[in-house]
Amino acid sequence: MSVLITGANGFIGLTLASSLLTHPSVTDLTLTDLTEPPAPPIPRSSPHPTNPPSTRRLALDLTNPSSISTLFPPNSTPYTAIYLLHGIMSSDSEANPSLSQAVNVRATTLLLDALVSHHHSSSPSSQNNPSTTPIPLTRVVYTSSCAVYSPLPPSPSNPSGLITEATPATASGVYGRDKLKSESHLLDLSSRGEIDAVILRLPTVIVRAGTPTGAASSFASGMFREPLQGVRSVLPVRRETKIWVTGARRLVGNLVRAGLGMAGESLLGVEKEGEKGERIVNLPGRLVSVGEMVDVLGRVGGQEALGLLEERVDEGVVRIVEGWAVRFDTAKAERLGFEVDGGLEGVVREFVEDYLGK
């Protein structure tokens, strides 16, 4: 299996690449970002693979068509799976809508169109050999976001205001709207039989290692990551704020399942006219309050860590975060074998184990 990961310098991209190094079916791994991605490390919990996949690491600007062509050399075998993880995050998208449009929409469109063109040129029919077995469609896993939804008011038929994949997406911000634009293109190409798309609407992922990102939800990782390493962190939202989160380990497992774990039809069923949403999955998460997160920080890091957390409300961040939906029905995802993490405190302790060596 040949796999491409875009946005591979990000926390999720690098962590996913590390996981795929030990996947028994992956033979070739291509990683790309604006700067050359680092060599992914072997996960601590995994033995060193006897036959690790060959790895290409490319510095490419995906808004440039000539850069994208580098990913699809003539006469090369199409990728088995592509993970589209590149993007401008929520706060940065609101601050620079043109950049969001270029990266979150145009770059995705260019890459998908290049993928389709490459698949056509690689198909047996294009090479005047119709008797040859057709090349399977590339599975494209698109990491969308629950930010495509606004909060759903309770109603007599839905008193809890739970959101399912059938709920109309009503993004209130630039980031969510641009995610929806790319979702639409993926669904269109899938319905035409050009790609095998899976759209995963992700909860906020915690605890991300590394440095803060341009996401409005960055505080949800920073409030653990920095204090647990003896560094101050600002909490820009109120304790009663609620968010929909998932642990990093579980997310990576779910991404592997989406891309390599099963065939497209066994995952999502055969699409019918008017049912394009079948390819959309709201990944499992859990609803937590920021106050609960503060309590977990105290249990894991003690008073010393709590003393490094400064509560200073930023109304700009509050406005973005409170515009996101937080109540989801993930029965579909769970039926398909996607899993929920083991709990908030367990997620934080996984970060300590994986990245702090404690």
Number of strands: 12
The quaternary state of the protein chains shown equals single chain
Q: What is the number of helices?
A: 12
What is the general shape? globular
The biggest sheet amounts to: 7 strands, parallel
* Proportion of helical residues: 25-40%
The overall average pLDDT, rounded, is 89
Report the portion of residues in β strands.
15-25%
What is the distance, rounded to the nearest whole angstrom, between the alpha carbons of the first and last residues? Answer: 35 Å
Query: Runs with pLDDT <50, length 5+?
Result: 270-276
Quickly give the structural class: alpha/beta
Order of helices and strands: EHEEHEHHEHEEHEEHHEEHEHHH
Radius of gyration using CA atoms only: 20 Å
Query: Strand order across the biggest sheet?
Result: 3-2-1-4-5-6-10
